[in-house]
Design goal:
Length: 418
């Protein structure tokens, strides 16, 4: 080997030794390839947030979702969905102002989000629950005014609620929808004015219920669905039966003759009463009455019956023979005592419902069979209802026989189906 070749070999060895030495110095050992770096992905963060939420760890889930929303590269639709989810979590935990912040972020991220209707309800709910009542009312007003046309000009406005007008037609329509017996109570101007106050109060309570999203409560929605079903069924029944029930005057008179016992006006009395808690007390009261004390004065001062005491014990309605019109029970014994006594006399104490009653007979009315004219309206109603039940049963039989249905009454009766 010549001298030049020897020098090159030595240089190569020295370089190799230098590299090995440098590796030990820098890495604490021989030089190695860098280890692969693992990172926490946005998908990992979302999975963590979902898991925390499913476990009911609301605060931890909120924190995880917020980190995901602020660090992941989300498109507007994704950001709106995540923001809405965070808002709902804050709302469920009673942090309504923080919920509002995320709901507003949802609107800004995606103004055309499919969640828009639900979002509006949630914003109103949070405003109401956080005490921002005016803002909630304003938001509700904006929401309910969409696609709503005003009425013709010239109709009379009787009230305004948050800028929304209530017209006199609304009040008349509400009164007209009542049963006749109830409608008669609101014929005077004064009673209509009272009804207006109730109508407006009901409107405010309804608006509050909407703001609090009670209309989305599962129990309420179930009940509303049930009511809707009943209304639709009733509409079909009305449509099917309305032309199938005819009433002739001769039919009514025949019905009256066949059911006279139903319209018999029973013997009745009007009484005043004193109610006592103990037999000894009742006996003492009887002694004082026998000594000349006034019945009505004693009723005012010592009777336990709050409904009649202030009026001297006078019971305003007729008490019919054999009926519990007094509502105190022991009908047989009470009725026998009342109808055995003469007008103006006082009965002995009678036990009923754990109390003792002393009665004064104020007035008597004998049993009476009214004429057809006197009860014509009752007869017509009874006859109509009987015809309606028969027609309705026929309709049920027809619709069940014309449809492919299987009914298993044995589930309730325990009998084996044939």
């Amino acid at each position: 080997m010549n001298r030049s070749a020897l020098i090159l070999s030595c240089v190569s060895v020295l370089l190799a030794l230098g590299v090995v030495f440098l590796g030990y110095k820098l890495g604490g050992g021989p030089l190695q390839q860098p280890a692969a770096q693992t990172s926490w992905s946005a998908e990992n963060q979302r999975t963590l947030a979902n898991k925390l939420k499913s476990q009911g760890l609301t605060n931890e889930a909120i924190e995880a979702y917020e980190h995901y929303a602020l660090t992941a590269q989300l498109d507007p639709k994704q950001l709106a969905n995540v923001s809405y989810a965070i808002g709902k979590l804050y709302m469920d935990s009673g942090q309504y102002e923080k919920a509002l912040g995320w709901f507003y972020r949802t609107e800004i991220a995606d103004p055309q989000t499919p969640l828009k209707a639900e979002l509006g309800s949630k914003v109103i709910n949070c405003l109401e629950r956080s005490g921002k009542y005016n803002a909630a009312e304003y938001a509700l007003g904006r929401r309910t005014s969409i696609n709503k046309t005003d009425r013709k000009t010239g109709t009379q406005v009787v009230a305004e609620v948050a800028g929304e007008k209530i017209y006199i037609e609304d009040i008349h329509e509400a009164i007209d929808s009542m049963p006749e017996w109830m409608r008669k109570q609101f014929e005077s101007r004064e009673r209509k004015a009272e009804f207006l106050r109730k109508y407006v109060a009901d409107e405010l309570l309804h608006r509050k219920a909407i703001k609090l999203e009670f209309d989305k409560d599962p129990a309420v929605r179930k009940q509303m669905k049930k009511v809707e079903r009943e209304m639709l069924v009733n509409k079909v029944v009305e449509q099917e039966l309305k032309d199938k029930i005819t009433i002739e005057k001769a039919d009514l008179q025949n019905y009256f003759k066949a059911h006279q016992d139903r319209y018999l006006q029973k013997a009745a009395v009007k009484v005043s009463l004193i109610k006592a808690g103990l037999k000894e007390v009742a006996d003492k009261i009887m002694e004082e009455l026998s000594g000349g004390k006034d019945f009505h004065d004693m009723a005012r001062s010592i009777s336990l019956d709050n409904a009649t005491a202030a009026n001297g014990g006078r019971y305003t309605r007729w008490v019919r023979k054999g009926e519990d019109d007094l509502g105190i029970g022991n009908v047989k014994k009470v009725s026998e005592a009342l109808f055995a006594a003469e007008t103006g006399t006082i009965t002995q104490p009678i036990e009923a419902g754990g109390y003792y009653y002393i009665f004064k007979i104020d007035k008597k009315r004998a049993a009476k069979m009214p004429s057809f004219q006197e009860v014509a309206e009752r007869v017509q109603n009874d006859y109509y209802m009987e015809k309606l039940k028969a027609a309705y049963q026929k309709l049920l039989d027809q619709i069940l026989s014309s449809s492919e249905v299987k009914i298993h009454p044995e589930v309730f009766t325990g009998e084996t189906s044939s």
